[in-house]
Amino acid sequence: MAKVITCGNFKGGTGKTTNSTMIAKTLSDRGLRTLLIDMDPQGNATNLFIKTKNYIDDEVTVFNTTMMAAIQSEDLTNAIITIKDNLDLLASSADFSLYPRFMERMTDYNERVQYFAQLLEPLKANYDYILVDIPPTISLITDSALYASDWCVIVMQTHERSLQGAEAFLRYIQSEVIDTFHAPTLDVLGILPVLLKNGAPVDVSTLEAANEIFGSDNIFQTTIRNMERLKRYDLTGITDEDMHDKKVREVYENVTDEFLARLEE
């Protein structure tokens, strides 16, 4: 059965989508069956992986069923797109913003929170890992993703607002998703730091503050450094062409090593 891991923070622009997609691809490159679920209605992870598929296959990819449509038909497999060997995508689009309204047919909010986990359960046998990308908001979408997850990685950019967002996200996981909604398996895998600017004093001070607040054992030892190639992937998809791509691969090999080690612990 797959392990389900959500990447989150209540501060936008911290690198949640970048890291969930890059870890998912690295897992798949190792032969591990991986599914990425894009639960952000903006669909950034979907766009990145569709462009990656186009880069690999050298053809335009069209999908006819969105995740929202699959939810309405009560069969998530209808929206799964194969990006490459061992890497699938549950694609999102703007219509997923209607998910909370659609779920108002259930009067009990706890039932709404649990519903997505029920739909996801049949897929778990098909994968080793399921990663979930979520929007940086308190909503039924976030609650549903976290409830369905075994673990959460809090992605924290080395910026004061991102640190505050990580603190708020951690408190919310405990007070709401675990204590109120009674998520059956959810725990925090760790805080993944993303440098705002390599070597800048604000990065150093924010990391020091994070170590004091969360404890050094809860901070990933691998730090994501500022790499321009990661920004380029939003335009091109994930490429494999030159030394810049190689540097990105090496970083995410290290991140994925620690990711798997933490899961094994």
TrEMBL record:
Any matching Pfam family: AAA_31
Chain ranges of the AAA domain: 2-175
SUPFAM superfamilies: P-loop containing nucleoside triphosphate hydrolases
InterPro entries: AAA_dom (IPR025669), DNA_Partitioning_ATPase (IPR050678), P-loop_NTPase (IPR027417)
Name of the protein this chain belongs to: AAA domain-containing protein
Protein species of origin: Vagococcus lutrae LBD1
